[in-house]
Amino acid sequence: MNMNTNEHNKKAEQLDVHSTSNDNEKLTTNQGLKINNNQDSLKAGERGPSLLEDFILREKITHFDHERIPERVVHARGSGAHGIFKLTKSLAEYTKAKFLTELGKETPVFVRFSTVAGSKGSTDLARDVRGFAVKFYTEEGNYDLVANNMPVFFIQDAIKFPDLVHAVKPEPDNEIPQAASAHDTFWDFISLMPESMHMIMWLMSDRAIPRSLRMMEGFGVHSFKFINEAGKVHFVKFHFKPRLGVHSVAWSEAQMISGVDSDFHKRDLWEAIENGDYPEWDFGVQLIPEEDEHKFDFDLLDPTKIVPEEEVPVEIVGTLTLNRNPDNFFAETEQIAFHPGHIIPGIDFTNDPLLQGRLFSYTDTQLSRLGSPNFHEIPINRSINTVHNNQRDGHMRQQIVKGKSSYEPNSIGGGCPFQAMMSEGGFTSQQERVSGVKIRERSKSFVDHYSQAKLFYNSQSAPEKTHLQNALIFELSKVTRPEIRERLVGQLAYIDTDLAWKVAEKLGVEVKKLEWPNQSLPADSNII
Ligand code: HEM
C-alpha cells in the first residue's frame, strides 16, 4: 500500500485488513467452495430445464439482484480519494482538538466531491453546487467537515430543505431533470424565497461550473465553535483553498464537455492522483471570539451570510493532500457516510437552525441508504480508534463483543465499557446559557437577504458579471410561466437594478416592485 506522504497511515492499515485481491485465485462461492464451471447452469439433460438445486446459479443471480442500493437523496454523484491532512500551525489557543493542536501532525482523510441535484449518472459539468465532504480519521474519533464549494446556502432553516430539494429535483410526474426541460419548479421556489438570493448569485456565477474538482474551494458554511482547554469559545468558519487556484469553465465549454465526456471531473481527479500530481488545498479558519458574536451587521448563525475576509482574515493552518485513489468505488466512495454531527472534543455546533436540522438528517438517511444501524462498521466508516459501547445486534453486525453484560451502570462487569472523564478525552457539550420562549418564527436578525447578494455581485469583474447575467437569462428563459420570471426579476432588482433590467429585457418581462406580506424588506427596498 502506498500512501506516499505517510508511512504509517492508520486508516490505510485498517482498510488493508479488509482488502483482498482476486489475482491468481480460483473462483469460489460465498461459502468458499471452488467452482468448476462458471459457464453453464445445472440442467436436467443438455437442453434443460435448469434445476432449482443449482446453488451456484442461485447464489450468483441472487447477489446480482441485490447489487444496487439507493443513491443519496442529494449529492448522489460523487468522486472520492484518500489523503492526508497536515497541521502547519497549531490552534491550541482556540481548540483542544488534538489533530489541530499538535504541529506537524498528519491525519488520514477521505474526501468525497459531489454534485447536489443530479442523479448518480448525471454529468459532472452541471451548473450546481459541489459537495466537498472531508472525513478526518483522528485519534479522538471521526471528525467530518461536510462542506460545499460555496460559502452560503439557499435557506436559513432546515424545515425548508425538503421543499428546496423537491423544487430542484425532476418534476414528480415526468422525472425529467430540470437541466433538460422546464425550470419552473426550481425558479418558482427561489422567486418566493428571498433568503436564497445570495446563494443564487453564487450559483449563477462561474463558481458553479468548476474547471476541475482540484480547482475549487471548500467552505464549512455554518459557523461552528472551537473550545480550548480552558473552556474559552471562538466561533469558527472553515475554508479549503486550492493550491492550483480557483478556475471555472464558461457555460458554452461546459455544455460541450458534457456532450463529449460527462465524467470529466471524475476522470481528471482520478488521473491526476494516478499520475502523482496530488491535489492540495490550504486549510484555513476565520476565528471570532465568543464575545464578538453580535458585532456584525448580520447574524453569525445565519447560513446565508459570509464573514467577509476583509473583516476577519482566513488564517491558513494546514494542508490537505489527496494522494491515493480508492481501490473500490462502491466499498469506499459510495458507502462512506459523512455527518456534520461527527465531532470531537474542542469542536462544537452553533444554534444555526440549518445546521441543527442537518444534525438529524444524515444518520437518518444513511439508515435507509446503507440499510442497517451497523453501517459505522463498514471499513471506510470505521474510526481508527476502537469502538466500545453497549449497542448490540442489528442487521449485519460485524463486531464480536465478548462478555456477559451490555448495560451501564453495571456491577457485574464482564465486557461493559464505562464513560470517560473529560481528562480522558470524554466529550462534553459546551455549556451554553440559553433562554427564551418556545417559538416557531424566524429571528429578526436573519432578515436582510440582499446586502451580501449585492456585495457578491459587485465583487464580480465585468466579464464575470456578464456570465452571471447570461446564466440568469439562459435559466429563466426555460421557465414557462411569465409570473415566475417576473417575480425573480423583482428579486434581482433588490440586488442590482441594472442586472434586473438587463435580464428583464431579454426575457420580455417588466421589472415590478414585489410585495412580501410576511417579509421585511431592506432599507433600500423602494429602489424600483
Ligand atoms: C449530503 C441533508 C444542507 C453538504 C446530504 C444527504 C442528506 C443531506 C440527506 C445525503 C447523505 C447520505 O446519503 O449519506 C441535508 C439537509 C440540509 C443540508 C437536511 C439542510 C437542512 C447542507 C449544507 C451543506 C451540505 C448546508 C454544506 C455545508 C452536503 C454534502 C453531502 C450532503 C457535501 C454529500 C456527502 C457525501 O459526499 O456523501 N445532505 N443537507 N448539506 N450534504 Fe447535506
From TrEMBL:
Signal peptide positions on this chain: none
EC number: 1.11.1.6
GO molecular function per UniProt: catalase activity
Catalytic activity line of the entry: 2 H2O2 = O2 + 2 H2O
Superkingdom of the source species: Bacteria
Sequence segments annotated as region (Disordered): 1-46
Cofactor(s) demanded: heme
Presence of the UniProt keyword Nucleus in the record: no
Keywords, ordered alphabetically: Heme, Hydrogen peroxide, Iron, Metal-binding, Oxidoreductase, Peroxidase
Biased composition regions of type Polar residues, renumbered to the chain: 17-41
The Catalase core domain, residue ranges: 28-416
Composition bias, Basic and acidic residues: 7-16
UniProt key word Metal-binding: yes
Task of the protein: Decomposes hydrogen peroxide into water and oxygen; serves to protect cells from the toxic effects of hydrogen peroxide.
Record-stated family: Belongs to the catalase family. HPII subfamily.
Protein name as catalogued: Catalase
Organism expressing this protein natively: Chryseobacterium cucumeris
Location of this fragment in the whole protein: 1 to 528 of 712
